[in-house]
Write a structure and sequence with these properties.
The chain is of the alpha/beta class. The chain is built from 16 helices and 19 strands. It folds into 2 domains: 116 residues, no CATH class; 337 residues, Phosphatidylinositol (PI) phosphodiesterase (TIM Barrel).
Length: 478
């Protein structure tokens, strides 16, 4: 939220000014790929995130506006910068002035050739809170609806097989590649902000170890019945997290995007989905709720789950599965913790999905084994609160000791008999994740699970490959 009605914008340019041109109306455009292609802006202006704003002029220039996640600098970030003051109009558009330039030589990117000025809006939020979008979302009636005729393509942490997980770039790529839903793990910062992050510790997918100012934060805590040592996300404020950069979890994946993208907030994640050119659903997880409630202080006696649901409601998410309200803004809320799902069911009518881990693992809240939870009796209980289950693949079809698939369990049949959806996780293209039955072919794996096992959605690290498989098989059926 802005604490003042007006804020200062800086026009950043490495070229000489050729004059100013007014922009009377700006609208959000869906391409976030530009930022992924031009990481120099992220590395140069750390602590800032921004969404693209497009405007028309006879020079066909582009501008980017930044939403500050830290207090604005006392001086413009570049000595060659010219500044001006902007304020949102009543209709949500932003009048602004930018410096425009003729196209300059560049490395093959047409947008980069046209774009030579970046506008950064520094919000004056004193605590490092990311400002809400200034541009009103447009009418959704002209956007292609969510497809519901085939199993859902769920981009697991975005297109994280190609880009660092849970980043704006990974989610934008997933949308471009045809994902029906983008999935996120939602955790909390020390100062109570919700961010998209999977682990309780920052060690594996950020450069936190390269920040000497945080060296003393490393410690050991109990997480889900085990002691874990590292830099815990709940020991960092949002502003501090925004100084970190993400990296790929595994060395065998493309590391060329390491050190570029920041951690994003839950609200920034939602913005990406709402800003898509077609209706794209979100699939957020209430991640590690027991740990979050233990280590983060919430106002007015609230809980992590309350903050989570309130954020979704703020952006208009609600409605029962397949209702008109749900189709307009599709969402599945997921969790491994049954008590969190029951609590959420009392706060929202949005569809909930119960995640199921390996049968040897125990739930973080009730200390039950997932072997017990996969019983028909327990499923009868949970179906009062959830519309589906999200099981680990090996819980549905256990592997043999020689990396072959054994006979499928009756878990999918049990769920379908109770009217529950089944969305297993996680599908990955790399050979090391494929059972020998599929002969190094991820499309054979998709075929087995969709047409053999009969699942209703798939969490995949590679939404492009799932989209291609479904397009190819649809053509054959026609």
């Amino acid at each position: 939220m802005y604490e003042r009605e007006r804020a200062q914008a800086w026009v950043v340019s490495s070229f000489d000014s050729r004059g100013s041109r007014p922009c009377k109306s700006a609208r959000v455009v869906s391409s976030v790929k530009w930022r992924a292609r031009h990481p120099e802006f992220d590395s140069r202006y750390r602590g800032l995130t921004y969404i693209p704003l497009e405007y028309s002029s006879r020079r066909n220039a582009y501008a980017y506006i930044a939403l500050a996640v830290a207090a604005p600098p006392s001086t413009p970030p570049n000595p060659t910068v010219a500044s001006t003051t902007i304020a949102p109009a009543e209709n949500g558009t932003i009048p602004l002035y930018v410096h425009t330039h003729p196209p300059s030589p560049c490395s093959g990117d047409l947008l980069a050739c046209r774009f030579v000025a970046a506008v950064f809006l520094a919000a004056v939020a004193s605590r490092g809170v990311a400002a809400r979008p200034l541009v009103a979302w447009g009418d959704d009636s002209d956007r292609a609806p969510l497809q519901t005729s085939r199993p859902f393509n769920i981009a697991h942490r975005g297109s994280n097989g190609e880009l660092p997980e849970e980043t704006a770039a990974a989610y934008a790529r997933a949308i471009d590649e045809g994902a029906d839903f983008i999935e996120a793990d939602v955790e909390a910062t020390k100062d109570g902000h919700l961010v998209c992050f999977h682990d309780t510790t920052l060690d594996d997918v950020t450069d936190v170890a390269d920040h000497p100012e945080f060296a003393s934060r490393r410690r050991t805590l109990e997480v889900q019945w085990a002691n874990v040592t590292g830099f815990f996300i709940t020991d960092f404020t949002l502003a501090e997290l925004k100084t970190l950069r993400t990296k790929q979890r595994w060395d065998f994946r493309d590391k060329s995007h390491n050190g570029i993208s920041p951690i994003i907030t839950f609200e920034e994640f939602i913005d990406i989905a709402l800003n898509a050119k077609r209706v794209v659903g979100i699939y957020p997880e209430m991640k590690n709720p027991v740990f979050m409630n233990k280590h983060v202080q919430w106002a007015d006696g609230k809980k992590y789950e309350d903050k989570f649901i309130a954020t979704l409601k703020k952006y208009g998410y609600g409605g029962k599965y397949m209702s008109p309200e749900w189709r307009a803004k599709p969402v599945f809320i997921q969790s491994f913790a049954p008590t969190s799902l029951v609590h959420a069911a009392n706060l929202t009518d949005s569809p909930l999905v119960f995640l199921i881990d390996d049968v040897t693992v125990r739930t973080e809240d009730t200390n039950q084994s997932y072997d017990e939870i996969t019983s028909g009796e327990y499923m009868d209980y949970m179906k009062k609160y959830v519309v589906g289950i999200g099981p680990w693949k090996d819980t549905v079809v256990p592997p043999t000791g020689d990396n072959q698939l054994a006979t499928p369990t009756d878990l999918v049949a049990m769920a379908h008999a109770r009217g529950l959806q089944v969305h297993p996780y996680t599908y990955r293209n790399e050979n090391k994740f494929l059972h020998f039955n599929f002969r190094q072919d991820p499309y054979a794996e998709y075929d087995y699970w969709i047409n053999g096992v009969g699942v209703d959605g798939l969490f995949t690290d590679f939404p492009a490959s799932l989209r291609r498989f479904q397009e190819w098989t649809a053509k054959k059926q026609n």
